[in-house]
Structures are given as C-alpha cells and as structure tokens.
Design goal:
The protein has 342 residues and is an alpha+beta fold. 37% of the residues lie in helices and 20% in strands. The protein folds into 2 domains: 85 residues; 234 residues, BirA Bifunctional Protein, domain 2 (2-Layer Sandwich).
Amino acid sequence: MKDRIKVITEEALKEIGACRAGEDTVEALRVKYLGRKGIITELFKQIGSVPAEDKPEIGKLINILKESVTRSLDEKSLLVPSAEEKAPPIDVTLPGESGHIGRIHPITRTIDEINSLFVSLGFRIVEGPEIETEHYNFETLNIPLEHPSRDAFDTFYVSFEKKTLLRSHTSPVQTRFMEKNRPPFAIVVPGRVFRPDATDASHSFMFHQVEGLVVGQDIKFSDLKGTLTTFARQMFGKEVRMRFRPSFFPFTEPSAEVDISCIVCGGKAGEKRCSMCGGKGWLEIMGAGMVNPKVFEAVGYNPEKVTGFAFGMGVERIAILKYGINDIRLFFENDLRFLRQF
Ligand code: PHE
C-alpha cells in the first residue's frame, strides 16, 4: 500500500506539472484524482482493509498525497496563462491599424475662422438664445407688424400665446446685449438661425449667421467699410475688392448689401461662363448698416450721444464661396466623403 501511494504521488505530480495553466486538462486531472470516483478517493476507501496498526500511518500518507495534489492543481488553475500559451500567433509584418481621429465640421471651422479674425480686431464673442421672443426678434429691431418676415408662414413659431419662435436672424442678440452693457463695445455673435424655406441647393431651414455690432462715440460708415474690407481681404485674399450697394433693413439706416469681387473670375464682369458669379463679377456676402436710432431708443441709449454699425453674414454662404461648394445640403447630410475633405 505504501508503495502504491508513492507511485501515485510521483505520477500525479508529473502529470499535473506537464499540463498547461488555464487549460481544461487541469480540471480533468482534478476529477481523475480527487473526484467522487477518483484515484485518491478510492485509496481512502481501501483504508478499511489495512491492518489496524498500519491504519494511522497509511491514512496520514494518503492525506499528504491529497494535499499536495490539491495544492498543485490549484496553483495550475490560478496561474494566468502566459500570452504565448493563450494568444494565436501574431503576424508582426502586417500593417498596423490606425485609430480614427475626428475633424472639425466645415461650418464650425468657418465660424472659428470668422471669430478669430474679428477677435484680432478687438471684438468680443457673445451668444444668445435660439428660441427668441417676438419682442427681441422683431420689435426691438424696429421690424413693424406688417413686415413680411413676421408672417406666421415666414417664421417657426414655438408658441403663439407666449410669442416665442425660433430666431430668424442673430440680430436680436444686438438688443439683448445693449440692454445689459454700456458702449463702447465691439461684439460678434455666431449662431444658428431658422426660416421655413423649402430646402434646395442654396436654401436650408436652418443655417448659421455671424452678427457684428460696434457702438461708441463717433462710429462712422467709414469704420464699417474699413472693418468689413479688412475682414474680406483676410478671409478671401488681398486682391479682393468691395462693393457697398444701398439696401434696406429696418434696424439699420443707411443700410447696404456688401459684395466682394468674384473670387473665381476676379470680377471681370461679362465673364458669362464664370461658375461662381455667372458673369455678374460680384458675390453678395452680407447685409450691413449704421444702427438705426430707433434701435438705440428701444434699449435706452441716447441716439444723440452714440452711433454704431452692424452687419450680418451667412456662414454657409461664406464657406460655399471659400471652399467652392455647390450645394448647401452637403453641410448637413453627414456624408463622410464630403466631410473628410476638410
Ligand atoms: N439680420 C439681417 C438678416 O438676417 C442681416 C443684417 C444684420 C443686416 C445686421 C444689417 C445689419 O438678413
């Protein structure tokens, strides 16, 4: 019996030593030796037939065997298999997989560029709410009740009772800011605006504007021209020429539409085939003007003491001209083939 125990001990430890950590064979060996019908369990059962005086010693030997087998098996199953034992072989010559890094959307990029250009001229960036009231979107800006933009079909109303709507331009931030601040100041206001236009290559029900407002003593139309000319040359190139066409906005007086010379044909009017300006030689980039005294009155400023200018540009329009894009919908369709080009 003693010899058998010795042989079994040697065999068991050899077998356990040979199997790999973490593999099923560890559990198979546990069953083989320690299971209900296992070799060691059987040994215990045979103690009955051993002469009485040998029983304590045999029992002790079997216990020692059981302990060392249990310990070796536990060690094997606890060991974390080495990478070599577990992982499939790696082909180190394969090209690596690079992670995907996102990029800035062309509209965000254009807004950032416009903002930093004006910041370098001393402007501050200010934002306002996208859900506006009739009061700020229209009334403080001298837009009368009969103005077409106040028609329910020309504005997304949120609530008729509360007179709330999705702002149709960023101009309401002009009067919101003036109510809380005293001149002199120069601000730009980037943000989303909404109009119920049918979507096509040049219209979207949601787009972005950057508004500008400068108020102080003795601010003149020439300051407006100088500021916007500096902006356009930095944005589109030094050779760009400017044109200020008389226009009308209720909140500025006088008002102008601002054009730049065509960045594709260089403004050679009559170049009928120009894909950008269609022969006009000019591209409209924004509306602008001197702040209407009525707007100053609406916010409690004295129009005898302060003057100012304001402008508002469409960001999509600027990006379309700058990057030569032919359809506004591309900005909002999330087509990666388009977005990856920026
Ligand atoms: N708010 C005008 C628009 O959306 C643009 C504008 C802003 C014009 C400021 C003049 C001065 O069309």
